[in-house]
């Protein structure tokens, strides 16, 4: 048993009696310090922006939050038309305040249920939003993202992974235990991290029908937040 797994077990034991929070309410309540909390990923935002193809005009941002990745993306593509979807109205309002003059279409919605349209976007991104859901549910979302892209369109995802199958299994089991304890149905979104292994994440994208799925890599001193590129 490695130190990381033992530390995770200790943290789960310490927090085992904490109630689960609804996803949208969780982020609405933390709008004040959200961007400071996410500041360690500044280099990843810039990396994502740099990886987008030249000449794109339309972008889908899945789980856009306050638009931390969009700060960097707009710096490179100031005329970009962005459609963003997020559960949190507070997060979307903050995004709108930051970028009042950008071409933004914002949907406060469940991105699993919200229609994205067909062949509508040149590219799509998601950043640190999908580590709460099982592979089958992600595959259905990835299929919607794929369909929303124009032929040859690129989807970039940066999210943290479960480094081992043991970690993935432990977190899904603990989430299920807490749901049962709190009487929360499986289809209700709660804020509890259940990342997949890299292999399972990429397979879910392949199952969604992307023509090519590849690991771009990791930034130095970060071996758990991969950048993945999928091409329609």
UniProtKB/TrEMBL annotation:
UniProt organism field: Candidatus Onthenecus intestinigallinarum
Signal peptide interval: none
One annotated GO biological process: methylation
Keywords tagged on the record: Methyltransferase, Transferase
UniProt cross-references to InterPro entries, sorted A to Z: Methyltransf_25, SAM-dependent_MTases_sf
UniProt keyword annotation of Membrane present: no
CDD domains per UniProt: AdoMet_MTases (cd02440)
Protein name as it appears in the record: Class I SAM-dependent methyltransferase
Ranges for domain Methyltransferase: 60-153
PANTHER family: METHYLTRANSFERASE
GO molecular function, one term: methyltransferase activity
Pfam families per the UniProt record, alphabetical: Methyltransf_25 (PF13649)
Keyword DNA-binding set for record: no
């Amino acid at each position: 048993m490695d130190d990381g797994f033992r530390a995770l077990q200790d943290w789960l034991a310490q927090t085992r009696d904490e109630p689960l929070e609804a996803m949208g309410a969780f982020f609405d309540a933390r709008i004040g310090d959200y961007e400071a909390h996410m500041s360690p990923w500044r280099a990843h935002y810039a990396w994502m922006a740099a990886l987008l193809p030249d000449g794109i005009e339309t972008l889908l941002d899945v789980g856009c939050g306050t638009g931390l990745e969009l700060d960097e993306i707009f710096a490179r593509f100031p005329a970009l038309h962005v459609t963003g979807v997020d559960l949190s109205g507070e997060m979307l309002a903050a995004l709108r305040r930051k970028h009042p003059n950008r071409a933004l279409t914002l949907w406060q919605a469940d991105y699993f249920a919200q229609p994205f349209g067909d062949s509508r976007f040149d590219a799509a991104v998601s950043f640190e939003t999908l580590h709460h859901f099982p592979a089958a549910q992600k595959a259905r979302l990835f299929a919607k993202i794929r369909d929303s892209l124009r032929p040859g369109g690129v989807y970039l995802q940066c999210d943290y992974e479960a480094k081992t199958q043991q970690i993935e299994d432990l977190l899904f089991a603990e989430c299920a235990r807490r749901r049962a304890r709190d009487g929360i149905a499986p289809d209700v979104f709660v804020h509890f991290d259940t990342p997949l292994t890299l292999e399972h994440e990429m397979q879910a994208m392949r199952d969604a029908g992307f023509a090519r799925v590849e690991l771009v890599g990791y930034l130095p001193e970060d071996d758990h937040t991969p950048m993945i590129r999928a091409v329609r």
